[in-house]
Amino acid sequence: LVEMSGKLMVLDRLMAGMYSGSDEKIVLVSNFTKTLDWFERLCRFRGYEYRRLDGSTDKTKRQQLVEYFNKSSQKSCFAFLLSCKAGGLGI
Question: What is the mean pLDDT of the chain?
Answer without folding.
Answer: 91
